[in-house]
Amino acid sequence: MSRLDQTPYAIDPYDCGCTECILRDYVPLRDATDEQIAQMLTGELRNNTSTEFRISAEWSLSDGFRPGAATVSSVQVTAEIWGGLTLTWDLTDHLDGPLGRLFDPDATDDR
Along the 111 residues of the chain, how does pLDDT read in single tens digits? Predict the structure, then answer.
């Protein structure tokens, strides 16, 4: 299997063109997928970006207002790069994996 078929180790700054990015050991932020951003948030990929991320979660309530009744229904991550450029990733499809445990205090980490 070539390195191109494997998950990178880290996400680098937006316009990075280092050797690791060229070899796809790392991925520049501009090319990062929703899945890779989710992996970065859970620590599976290193964050080499020097970028501040904003995480927005939408919660749904069921069964009234009892503790534990709220569940996260969508997650978006945004990053403002420079010059007003904003990148957005929708991580809603990744809530069933390790990312979902970040929003569920009762979940166990079985990785």
Answer: 345 567 899 999 999 999 999 999 999 999 999 999 999 999 999 999 999 999 999 988 776 666 666 788 899 999 999 888 999 999 999 988 888 888 776 665 554
In the numeric block, which tokens belong to residue 9? Answer: 């180790």
Q: Assess if residue 107 is contained within a domain.
A: no
The phi and psi torsions of 70 (rounded to 5 degrees) equal -85, 135
Position 37 in a domain:
yes
d(CA 98, CA 78): 19
Q: pTM of the full predicted structure?
A: 0.82
Instruction: Please tell me the total count of domains within the chain.
Output: 1
Tell me whether residue 110 is in a domain.
no
84 Cα distance to chain centroid: 21
Task: Report which residue type is found at 92.
Answer: T
Whether 75 is covered by a domain: the verdict is yes
CA gap 9, 97 in Å, rounded: 18
User: Which range of residues forms the domain containing residue 65?
Assistant: 3-96
